[in-house]
Design brief:
By secondary structure, this protein is an alpha+beta fold. It has 2 domains: 1-93, 2-Layer Sandwich (Alpha-Beta Plaits), CATH 3.30.70.100; 106-201, Alpha-Beta Plaits (2-Layer Sandwich), CATH 3.30.70. The chain is 25% helix and 34% strand. The chain has 5 helices and 8 strands; from the N terminus they run βαββαββααββαβ. The protein has helices spanning 15-25, 60-72, 121-131, 136-139, 164-176, and strands spanning 2-9, 36-45, 50-57, 85-93, 108-116, 142-148, 154-161, 189-199. An 8-stranded antiparallel β-barrel has the order 1-3-2-8-5-7-6-4. A hairpin with a 5-residue loop joins strand 6 and strand 7.
């Protein structure tokens, strides 16, 4: 699966209006170029005033066509607000992961991005594939993991939990048991960043 992750940034008070415009844009199910809406979140801890949108495509060509149209639009995604910036990234899902399952997944989402060393993607893929099943009490909360098709070498993984307490408890236990992080994975990371988000009401992932 091919994904596009878009970060919309505005002032904090503008987030509700931005969300309403995005909801209206993706309510048009007849648009064949819009891609499949996967998730929409607003940042609660991290860079505030940010709405993160994830959409999926069946091919890179379909993503590029959608991106061309977005770049040429006077009001991309129907956003007629002033002071909104947009940053789009292209990803491919890890080949051994299934597409995300929509619906209620916990309500608290974490989006983590790791910049990798040159040549670090293949060891990262192998490390994650080996670690998923032994750490399944934790990794069942994984929504997806993706590697970048543009820009710096990096991966982006999205998790869903019932609460911050649940997330922290699972991580502590799996670290203590030596089941997480994936062995050989952290050695490939140069820089890491994370944000905690809440899903918007119209997000397929909630």
């Amino acid at each position: 699966m091919i994904y596009e992750l878009i970060r919309f940034r505005t002032d904090v008070l503008g987030v509700p209006a931005l969300s309403r415009l995005l909801k209206a844009r993706f309510s048009d199910a007849l648009d064949p170029v819009a891609g499949n809406l996967t998730g929409v979140w607003r940042t609660e801890i991290g860079e505030l005033g940010t709405v993160v949108l994830l959409r999926s495509f069946f091919s890179q060509d379909a993503l590029l066509e959608a991106r061309r149209r977005t770049l040429k639009a006077r009001t991309p995604f129907g956003i007629k607000m002033k002071g909104v910036s947009m940053e789009a990234e292209a990803f491919e899902g890890f080949p051994f992961l299934k597409p995300p399952e929509f619906g209620e997944r916990g309500g608290l989402y974490e989006i983590r991005t790791y910049s990798l060393k040159a040549g670090g993607l293949e060891p990262t893929l192998k490390a994650w594939q080996s670690a998923l099943k032994p750490a399944q009490a934790y990794t069942r909360h994984l929504i997806t993991n993706m590697f970048a098709l543009d820009g710096a070498s990096r991966i982006c993984h999205i998790w869903a939990f019932d609460s911050l307490e649940q997330r922290n408890s699972l991580r502590r236990q799996h670290y203590a048991d030596g089941l997480w992080p994936p062995k050989g994975g952290p050695e490939q990371i140069i820089h890491a960043r994370s944000c905690l988000c809440f899903p918007e009401t119209f997000s397929p992932l909630r």
